[in-house]
Write a structure and sequence with these properties.
The complex is a heterodimer.
Chain A (H helix, E strand, L loop, with lengths): L1 E2 L11 H12 L17 H13 L7 E4 L2 H11 L7 E4 L4 H9 L8 E3 L9 H9 L5 E5 L11 H10 L3 E5 L18 E5 L11 E5 L36 H17 L1 H20 L4 E4 L10 E6 L4 H12 L1 E2 L1 E3 L7 H4 L6 E5 L6 H14 L1
Parallel strand pairs in A: 1-11, 3-4, 3-5, 5-6, 6-7
Antiparallel strand pairs in A: 2-8, 7-8, 9-10, 10-13, 12-13
Helix pairs in contact in A: 1-7, 2-7, 3-4, 5-6, 8-11, 9-11
Chain B lengths: L4 E4 L10 E6 L6 H8 L4 E5 L6 E5 L3 E6 L4 E6 L5 H9 L2
Antiparallel strand pairs in B: 1-2, 2-6, 3-4, 4-5, 5-6
Classes of the chains: A alpha/beta, B alpha+beta.
Chain lengths: 375, 93
């Protein structure tokens, strides 16, 4: 089996992640701030925050909070910052983890301004500035790297525009954290959402978010936190954001995954994955009737390649690849329903191939061979 | 061919929001089985040239697809026509 669906969930995981996860299940259970069960003062939660801060360019690591993944994080951020949809500018490249909270959260009315993208998935900063100039929007939510085309937005420039017009700048780093450089503080981001199970090499059900200190931010959930159990009513600004028992084995594994990345340096990972995508695009461009999206993406790109074929819809291609060739990909809209109108893939979406550092050139060769046979 | 079981597909999202089921046949699908399915209403595609040949029957209400040699095939159906799954199971039950 060749696994090329890493933009959904990375597989396999580094050995150290598997080992750490297993070991965490063998250790006495550790609850954050309570019943640590250890006497050496080791704290998996703080260590993970420290490592995430180093990777994502966040100095104030105590403002990193764990969650079950990006969807949980983005719901927390959108709800917690009390964003009203009609006061938000976002993009058509967004995942449903941004779109659905904006359109459906209780008390959230109106519609956000949706910035278009070009056929590669890029959002134009000038278009953003025109909207920002109108002065209605209080927040800008940006999908840093498209999970459909791999286009990476210029977060530094877009963040500067958001700040120039007094807007909160929120980054969805689901597809970039762990495979591309994310510089939260430098880009003046007020909040960042990330997930553990993709390029951060953690397990499903882990992730987190950062929210800058000083913002009015209410928790999506309340409950036990292990700190000051006598307090029932919170005053604004004194909230706690990790209610309930945390996923300690998952966070230990996430910490190991982040450390595995830090040991290699992000540029090494980015370089390897870029070479894989370039080889794939080159191979696909020779196949008649195959339309690769994002061919004009230059420089930094996420490790995903989307395409569609004149011959078969993406769902059939994925079925054949999986059941006839043992190659796992992903077909459809990829939970980003709005982008397809702009990139030319229509209501059937695309066939998406996505890499991790564990993929090889041989995987790409096998995939191209299979596509040639199908076509 | 006998359909022994139906399972809600884990890949419903790929079938453009239609309801999708994986229908179990117990035995590997043969050319004769595929010929039987070909009789269902709709256009028929058979990619015999593949090492594991792929087939598809498609009309505006449903798509049947599978691979020769597998002991299951996919039945994706428009949400308003889900009863067709049971009709198919009855026919091949």
């Amino acid at each position: 089996m060749i696994y090329l669906n890493n933009a959904a969930t990375s597989y396999p995981k580094p050995d150290i992640v598997k080992k750490t996860f297993e070991e965490a299940l063998e250790l006495l259970p550790s609850g954050q701030f309570r019943s640590a069960g250890v006497s050496d003062n080791s704290d998996v939660f703080s260590l993970c925050r420290k490592r995430l801060g180093a990777l994502l360019g966040i100095a104030d690591v105590n403002r990193i909070f764990f969650s079950s993944g990006s969807t949980d994080s983005l719901n927390s951020i959108i709800y917690g910052l009390k964003l009203k949809a009609d006061e938000v500018i976002t993009t058509v490249t967004e995942h449903n983890s941004v779109l659905r909270p904006l359109f459906n959260l209780p008390g959230v009315k109106g519609k956000p301004v949706l910035l278009p993208c070009d056929k590669n998935g890029y959002v134009d900063p000038e278009t953003f500035e025109k909207e920002a100039k109108q002065g209605k929007a209080k927040a800008f939510i940006l999908n840093h790297c498209s999970n459909v085309t791999g286009a990476v937005q210029d977060a530094r420039d877009l963040g500067e525009i958001a700040k120039r017009y007094g807007m909160l700048f929120i980054i969805d780093a689901s597809q970039s954290a762990g495979c591309l450089e994310v510089m939260t503080d430098k880009w003046q981001a007020d909040a960042v959402a990330f997930t553990g199970h993709k390029s951060l090499m953690g397990v499903q059900g882990t992730g987190g978010f950062y929210v800058r200190r000083g913002l009015s931010f209410i928790p999506l959930r309340f409950g036990g936190t292990g700190l000051d159990s006598s307090r029932i009513l919170y005053e604004d600004g004194e909230y706690e954001y990790e209610a309930g028992t945390q996923n300690a084995p998952g966070i230990a594994a996430l910490s190991a995954g982040v450390n595995w990345i830090l040991e290699r340096e992000i540029r090494e990972i980015e370089d390897k994955e870029r070479k894989l995508t370039e080889k794939l695009i080159e191979g696909l461009s020779d196949i008649k009737g195959v339309h690769v999206i994002g061919q004009e993406i230059k420089g930094i790109r996420g490790p995903v390649v989307s395409f569609y074929s004149d011959m078969l819809p993406p769902s059939d291609l994925a079925y054949i690849l999986q059941n006839s060739f043992g190659i796992v990909t992903r077909a459809g809209l990829h939970c980003a329903p709005l982008i397809h109108e702009y990139i030319g893939s229509g209501d059937k979406g695309t066939l998406r191939v996505s890499f991790s550092p564990f993929n090889t050139y041989e995987d790409v060769d096998e995939f191209i061979k299979a596509m040639r046979e199908i076509s | 061919m006998t359909i022994t079981d139906k399972r809600k597909s884990l890949e419903a999202c790929t079938e453009s929001g239609w309801d999708a089921f994986d229908l179990m046949t117990g035995e590997p699908l043969s050319d004769e089985d595929i010929e039987e399915l070909k009789c269902m209403e709709g256009s028929f595609l058979y990619m015999k040239q593949l090492k594991k040949p792929f087939f598809k029957v498609e009309n505006h209400d449903y798509v049947i697809k599978g691979v020769k040699g597998d002991s299951f095939f996919r039945f994706a159906v428009h949400k308003d026509k889900v009863s067709l799954v049971d009709e198919l199971m009855e026919r091949f039950g």
